[in-house]
Design goal:
By secondary structure, the chain is an alpha+beta fold. It contains six helices and 20 strands. It folds into two domains: about 1-150, no CATH class; about 160-295, Phospholipase A2. It has helices at about 160-165, 205-210, 225-235, 240-255, 265-280, 285-295; strands at about 1-5, 10, 15-20, 25-30, 35-40, 50-55, 60-65, 70-75, 75-85, 90-95, 100-105, 110-115, 130, 135, 140-145, 150, 170, 210, 215, 220. The strands form four sheets. Strands 1, 2, 3, 4, 5, 6, 7, 8, 9, 10, 11 and 12 form a twelve-stranded antiparallel sheet that branches. The chain has a four-stranded antiparallel sheet with strand order 13-14-15-16, with no helix packed on it. Strands 17-18 form a two-stranded antiparallel ribbon.
Length: about 300
Amino acid sequence: MVSSPLAGEGRGGGSVSYAYDGDGNRVSKTDASGTIKYINDVALPLVQVLQETDSAGNLIASYTYGNDLISQTRSGITSYYLYDGLGSTRQLTDSAGSVTDSYIYEGFGNCIYSSGATTNPYLFTGEAFESLPSLYYLRARYYDPSIGRFISRDPILSPMWLWIGRTWAWFVPLVDQPQMLHPYVYVQNNSINLTDPRGLACGPGILGDVFIPDRWWGAYDFTLSCLAHDSCYAGCGKSKSGCDEAFYDNMLNECNRLSRRNPFYYDCLITARTYYLAVKHAGGKSYRDAQAKSGCQPCEK
């Protein structure tokens, strides 16, 4: 578990800190009122919170999902979500269908009107709003609706030496879509039509956003791992998570060909981890496109 880079004083006073697991999923929040732990479902296309508990494990809230968040239950009271076309929560209803809460937003997500007293963190585009820092949690990053920008650089559109020392990324869509290269921009400034639940660059996954070489100075070569991963994505009924895990295993096998005394050994391990997290969190569209092109119907699992 790691502590959050987002920790400090909120705009309204007080302080808040967060903790994450090894895959970058948020697992707890601590502020003046105490600690909330998040029980996540990591098997969904987007990691979602199933339950919130206090530090002693007592249930605070539970959430029910279909294609989207359907309802939340707090203190035995269930509220149901009603969304607009962008996926933003517009109303909450009780079990009888009566509206208990309503919300109105500006174009970039500022909530300018709300009615009702139900505790509800899921607002603009259906994502979690943190009231103390006044930011939206979009998994890879936090978004500030007051300025329409993320508060940190896009980890995909950042030079990879920030992660792994000497490795750089080459950006492809500069001519056709220059807004994609702005490391802080939110949905290419098109917030009334687009959403960004992952906090990562828009486009067909990692291959559509950035070209990453498969071989590094001859020390190690991920070409076969990448080809096998592409083939797996295109396999009828193959699961994305299974393909991504196999990709990671193949890269680690390539790294293990090197002696631990080799100066590139640990560089290889870190690069493999970076590639794995990239396809895990940003490869969804590439997977869906490959499945569609395969001409088969995915098997129900």
